[in-house]
Amino acid sequence: MTTTIIENKNSRQNLWNSAKNLAFPTAIWRLPRQTEKHFLTSFGEIPQQTKIDFEELGAGFAFSPFVNPDGDKTFFLKADLHYIFNANGSTQNELIREVITPSSVNPYFIQLLENSISKQATSTNHSFETKQTQKHDFVDLVKKGIAEIESGIFQKVVLSRTKQVVLPANFDIISLFDKLCETYTSAFVSAVSLPHLGVVWVGASPEILVSQDSRGIFRTMALAGTQSAYDAEGNLIKPSEALWRQKEIEEQSFVTRYIINCLKKIRVREFEEEGPKTVIAGNLMHLRTDIIIDTVAVNFPQLATVMLELLHPTSAVCGMPKIPATEFILQNEGYDREFYSGFLGPVNMQSGDGKTESHIFVNLRTMKLQENIATLYAGCGITADSNPEKEWNETEMKTQTLGRVLSAEF
After folding, report:
1. Half-sphere exposure of 337 (CA within 13 A, CB side)
2. pLDDT (tens digit, 9 = 90+) per residue, 284-312?
């Protein structure tokens, strides 16, 4: 392992552009409530697709689609290069720490990236053309979902929609990423470039799927129920003063019960349950319950791997029971979610203090960038008490999480 210090205010932009031009899969991210920003690139135009096994895989970044029944369709961006950026109080003078430089990596590639020497990228665009969802179509879809609930097919289904925005001519990923980090300090902010698909996915997710730190502490959460974080006069509501309807309370309890049932399947009964409590995520409020397990104390080091397979997709993104809800989504939503409501995050990666950890998040509050179009995604949990018009308004609020930053920055 070597450590390199580079002082260059444009270094992240140079690295990102060079990796894109070289057609290298790349991820940048910042963990919730942290200041360190990470850059990872994988040498090779098409990343490996595999099942995420935290005990077997090396360092890298996981990126999974929503539909991944066997778990083996997850892209794994191997950490051929991993840099940690520390703004050190200023975005104008950053330090870059080179954390991973495997001996098998050709130094020529490192030189290409660091010097921004590039070649013209070639990509085969296999990405689906995504159309914008019309309001009347979404309202009809919600009505159909409610009818299925009333007939007993499922108790809850999570239905989603898309919204499209034309990107301005001066758009750049790094500026948007930095603005999201500044605006949503408690979110997992990321940008993932897959040149072989011709797409970049950018997001600010509030929801941990599975996380395990260097001490073996495992975490997951049930995050559901949504309302605006601001009152009618535009004032921020205190979490302690938030009022929740029965519909949101029931929706959140479905997700919590789903997680606990997964733990029962693997006979894990020693866990801490914190919540539900009201949390603010950008312009929204949610109900959240945290589940915490000491994998050392329960002698279950494989817990994160096992729970990832059991949890995805959680009832927070598909519904309950999982199978009929998912089948309804695939047959009726009218578009392919691709990576929206999948999962993503660093696997066995070093932090600034040298500790190795894994943090996987649900891919929510996200958008796909393809050519000059940004496709934003938002969903809402439908129960028997749902109102189609209010559900449309909820998805509008959720698209504003990224949409308002996108419009404000450019």
Report:
1. 30
2. 899 999 999 999 999 999 999 999 999 99
The DSSP annotation for 7-71 comes to --TTHHHHHHHHHHHTT--EEEEE-TT---EEEEE-SSSS-EEE---TTT--SEEEEE-S--TTS
> How far, in Å, CA of 157 to CA of 326, rounded?
8
CA distance 182 to 350: 23
Buried b (16+ CB within 10 A) or exposed e, 306-333: bbbbbbbbbbbbbbbebebbbebbeeeb
Domains of the chain by range and CATH? 135-166+207-409 (3.60.120.10)
pTM of the model: 0.91
286: DSSP letter: E
Contact present, 201 and 369 (Cβ < 8 Å):
yes
Q: What is the pLDDT of residues 202-217, one digit of tens each?
A: 999 999 999 999 999 9
What is the C-alpha to C-alpha distance for residues 71 and 379, in angstroms, rounded to an integer? 22
Helix, strand or coil for residue 191? strand
Q: How confident is the model at residue 45 (pLDDT cuts 50, 70, 90)?
A: confident
Q: Which helix (H) or strand (E) holds 320?
A: strand 319-320
